[in-house]
Specification:
Length: 522
């Protein structure tokens, strides 16, 4: 019953979210534009963020430097940079809803490690912003944003970093009490609390998290280094939660008060002490964790005890790339990836899927590197006098389309050497070579004609014949075997008298024989 109720609520929340988040909300012209990075209230002809919020809340032009608010207002920015607050911003309580949108600029709103950045009590959308160094003082929560109790809080394409809640405080990045919190394509990095929920604390709240990353967040004395769910329903899809820590229980996600967290296509790894703790964790399918604390095992396409092979954080908002060979690649659920709020997008900005299936986590792997020949080495002893030899050809990744026409021999001295057969693959191949006749050297080379392809259909060396050719392989030294062969030459006389001796060479294929000649006649 709990699972059914959570699922129905999840579908309702998505319908509500995407009926409200229509494109005009974020793309049409703003009603108020901030044109300064200062944090003042003054009649100086400059519209500050602080003044714009007041005008939007009141639907009037209390401060003439900014346009008047009217209805569901949007605040945009005419410049990039950091707004260093001298105190917390005015509480956002616009009953019509307010959007603060930094799209087209690079805007950071900083609490200077002294003030909470935003207190919201009504509908608020944060888009393309960095909320940094917010500070919730003794007994307060929500260093970056504290949201309570009406309306919704929606965070899009944004970064929360360096925010703190000290002493008994919780929710370093965001504290959401009741209402609905939605986080899409955003990153919570290096946020800290003394209490619980270093990144996000949801208190009896419905929370949707998609295409997002949580890393470096911590809860010093309690749990939920990344996420703390108290009595709510969390729905987490195609997100990556890695490298978070807690003083107790879970550095990843912690549920309390009969809370339920449903995870789908999500990576959890390297969270101290474990990835999941307490409450109910519902396996939405195709999750990956490096431990077993979430309890899904291998059910519904999920992977437990697996290293996701994450690269270093990069991008803005930051994400963990999947390294080549990651088990998360092509292991996601395509239905979940296609549905809102993922809608076949990824945090790194490329469409899903890039190959046969979408990937697990916020990142969609893109193979931008063409395949290359890694090495060609001898498989048999060297030097040699054998009639055939083997080479090992190793590509940097799995490839297809490899056949005998992709190889040629570079020889000195020997004649008649040829390529006999090819076996192995898809990354390591064995080539058998006939050594021909005579003494000399044999080297196997690769000729790139753009028919050898990797999994993503990139040709060897990239587009263009010849740029993936390889001529630096190991060389076989082919020896001619020599020995003495006794030989007697006779005349017509049958007395078999030896009259003299001499030496001459007899060559056959690659064997050169030395003969001892005895003469019995005149």
């Amino acid at each position: 019953m709990k699972t059914l109720r959570s699922t129905c609520r999840f579908l309702f929340l998505f319908a509500l979210l995407f009926s409200w988040l229509s494109p005009p909300t974020l793309t049409q012209a703003a009603s108020l534009t901030v044109n300064t990075l200062t944090d003042t209230i003054a009649a100086d002809g400059l519209c500050t963020l602080r003044e714009a919020i007041v005008n939007a809340n009141r639907d009037e032009a209390k401060y003439a430097d900014c346009a008047a608010g009217s209805g569901a207002d949007t605040i945009t920015f005419g410049l990039s940079g950091t707004i260093l607050l001298g105190s917390s911003l005015p509480t956002v309580d616009d009953p019509d809803g307010l959007t603060i949108d930094g799209a087209g600029q690079s805007v950071t709103i900083s609490g200077g490690d002294a003030y909470r950045v935003i207190h919201s009590s009504d509908t608020l959308v944060i888009n393309h912003l960095t909320i940094a160094d917010g500070y919730a003082a003794l007994g307060l929560s929500g260093g970056g944003i504290y949201h309570c109790c009406d309306g919704t809080l929606t965070i899009l394409n944004s970064t929360f970093t360096g925010n703190r809640a000290v002493q008994a405080g919780s929710g370093g990045g965001v504290y959401n009490y009741w209402g609905t919190l939605t986080i899409i394509n955003s990153t919570f990095f290096d946020n800290h609390v003394n209490g619980a929920g270093g990144g996000v604390f949801g208190n009896h709240a419905d929370v949707i998290i998609a295409n997002s990353t949580f890393s470096g967040n911590s809860a010093q004395t309690e749990g939920g280094g990344a996420i703390y769910n108290e009595g709510g329903d969390f729905f987490i899809t195609n997100s990556t939660i890695s490298g978070n820590s807690a003083g107790l229980y879970s550095g990843g996600i912690q549920n309390t008060w009969n809370a339920t967290s449903t995870l789908t296509n999500t990576v959890l790894s390297n969270n101290t002490f474990k990835n999941c703790h307490d409450g109910v964790f519902i396996n939405g399918g195709h999750n990956l964790e490096d431990g077993a604390s979430c309890g899904w095992g291998s059910n519904d396409g999920s992977l437990s005890g697996s290293n996701p092979l994450l690269g270093a954080l990069t991008g803005s908002p930051a994400y963990f790339p999947l390294l080549n060979g990651s088990p998360a690649i092509d292991a996601g659920d395509d239905i979940a990836c296609a549905a809102p709020p993922i809608s076949n997008q990824s945090q790194n900005g490329v469409p899903r899927p890039q190959w046969t299936h979408c990937d697990i986590g916020s990142y969609e792997y893109v193979d931008a590197i063409p395949p290359l020949v890694q090495s060609i080495t001898r498989l048999d002893p060297n030097p040699t006098s054998a009639t055939s030899l083997r080479f090992t050809v190793t590509f940097a990744e799995a490839v297809t389309g490899v056949d005998l026409s992709d190889f040629t021999l570079s020889v000195t001295g020997v004649t008649g050497a040829s390529i006999l057969s090819l076996s192995g693959g898809p990354k390591v191949y064995t080539v058998l070579v006939d050594t021909g006749s005579g003494a000399g050297t044999i080297r196997l080379d690769v000729l790139d004609d753009d028919t050898v392809l990797d999994t993503w259909l990139h040709p060897l060396g990239g587009a263009g014949a010849g740029n993936g050719s390889y001529t630096d392989g190991e060389v076989y030294d082919v020896l001619a075997y020599r020995n003495f062969l006794p030989l007697t030459l006779r005349s017509g006389d049958t007395s078999n008298k030896v009259l003299g001796w001499g030496l001459f060479w007899i060559s056959h294929r690659f064997l050169t024989k030395m003969a001892l000649i005895t003469l019995n006649g005149q």
